[in-house]
Amino acid sequence: MRTTPGSPRAWLRRHPLFGDSALAAVLAGVSIAATVVIGTGDTSGYGPAKAPDALSVTLIVLGLAPLVLRRRWPFVLLCVAALPQIALAALHYDGGSTAVASLILLYTVAAYRGLALSLAAAAVAALAYALKVILDDDPANWTRHTFAMVVAIAVWVVGRSVRLRRAYLAELVDRAERLERARDADTRAARAEERSRIARELHDVVAHHVSVMTVQAAAARKVLDTRPEAAKDALMAIEEMGRTAMREMRGIVGVLRTDGETGELSPQPGMGDLPGLVDQMREAGLRAQLWIEGERRILPPGIDLAAYRLIQEALTNSLRHAGPAARAWVTVRHEPSELLVQVEDDGLGGTGEFARGPDDRPGHGLVGIRERVALYGGILRIGPRHGGGFEVRARFPLKD
């Protein structure tokens, strides 16, 4: 049963000391009033009771006072509360509602403490009741004793059930929180991976097209005065290359839209677009050639895009760093169990890694290539070519 915030029950749950104090005061008042009104009547079941006096009232108050702090030290207070009750039985006073205090403390131990301590509390309550029975003038009243035992067992079982239910609900809440945290972590990881993929795609698109446009612009500037028609052709190629770059960038960035719009979607490039890529590089001034060996087969989309981006990045770096008279060769070999991609040039590229000019800053091309190849379990080699130049070679395993 859920508690409405701001209700009296919710306030009492936030201030348990007030409720327990009120409970102890009510039980004490009822017990004292009952013993005073009834007088010497047998209300406790321990035989003829003495007339109430200051001692009996004091013992009743001491027997019910532990209820005030029952949530803090229930087991200790259960032991303390048993002493005034035993004293009342030994002196043949009417104990009033002091037995109820023992039941409440027994329930508190069972509901808020572990199994071992709750069993110890049950043993203490049984021992205290046995001592009161021994001190009773009528210990053979088995009906009353059996009823008291059944009530005590029922109270203990209810307390344990409440504790187990509370622990079960706490476990469900904790599990839900763990699942929520795990889901948030998975979402953040997926977003980071998607951002990394988009960054690689943007780099490949921008680096390739801007590099080609830069070379075309430089060529147009050199022949602008002497060969205006050639400069016009170079400017038209730059215009077309810029439109292509914008179209691809819209397709990539379109997935980042959050306002419900859809970007201009177009198929991702693949190995079938290699002839067009090589033609672009030739128009930009790189003497590139393409060889495709083996029986062509349909490649997985991821490997298809990764191999294309690798060739695009390698040719772009050859265009930028190999020199004006360099040649480049692209070899694609389809084998039954793997795809071999090799790009090499005979230019003046640097050693060890993709060379960079004095005006270039380290980019993400090499990192992106390594990530793409490693993602599909491939093997990558980047370095100087035997006999001069530079070489990029990758092997992608193909599964049936």
UniProtKB/TrEMBL annotation:
One of its GO terms (molecular function) is kinase activity. Residues 306-399 form the Histidine kinase/HSP90-like ATPase domain. Gene3D superfamilies: 1.20.5.1930, Histidine kinase-like ATPase, C-terminal domain. Residues 9-166 form the DUF7134 domain. Residues 194-259 form the Signal transduction histidine kinase subgroup 3 dimerisation and phosphoacceptor domain. It catalyses: ATP + protein L-histidine = ADP + protein N-phospho-L-histidine. The chain crosses the membrane at residues 21-39, 51-69, 75-93, 105-130, 142-159. Pfam families: DUF7134, HATPase_c, HisKA_3. Its EC number is 2.7.13.3. Keywords: ATP-binding, Kinase, Membrane, Nucleotide-binding, Phosphoprotein, Transferase, Transmembrane, Transmembrane helix, Two-component regulatory system. This is histidine kinase. It comes from Sphaerisporangium flaviroseum.
